[in-house]
Amino acid sequence: MASILKVNTFTGASTAGSIAVTGEGNSTTTNLQQGLCKAWVHHDQEGSHDIDDSFNMTSIADSAVGRTTYTLTNNMANATYPTPFQAWDSAKFLGYSQGFSKTTSSWGNARTDAEASGSEIDADQVGETVFGDLA
Question: What is the pLDDT of residues 24-57, one digit of tens each?
């Protein structure tokens, strides 16, 4: 027989915003709050640089060819958060840089043409994610 649990809020017993989940083999523990993506965005660098869809993202800005600056709605606790991303371009094989110029509220990333000149290019589709601690 299947069970259904319906709740609106989970609150940690010792720390309200921290819930531990026992993982594989009942031997590992994951902090649910730490494992969540804190922000993401999908956009096109070519043309108008519009956001197609996002979460916790105030805006993006075309800072140069192949470069985008991202601004968060809710800040991170520090500037050491990871920003893994992927980009696709129909005409080029792309190389990527990890986030740079990070602050608690924004960061930048760049895409380059990995198969030819190595110069920066705008990508057809870009997906960015943010992991870390919200302020």
Answer: 777 776 677 777 899 999 999 888 888 999 999 9
Q: What is this structure's pTM?
A: 0.79
Burial 30-52 (b: 16+ CB within 10 A, else e): eeebeeeebbbbebebeeebeee
- HEC string of the chain? CCCCCCCCCCCCCCCCCCCEEECHHHCCEEECCCCCCCEEEEECCCCCCCEEEEECEEEEEEEECCEEEEEECCCECCCCCCCCEEEECCCCCEEECCCECCCCCEEEEEEEECCCCCCECCCCEEEEEECCCEC
Is the residue at 54 inside a domain?
Answer: yes
- Classify residue 96: in a domain, yes or no: yes
Domain that holds residue 73: 37-130
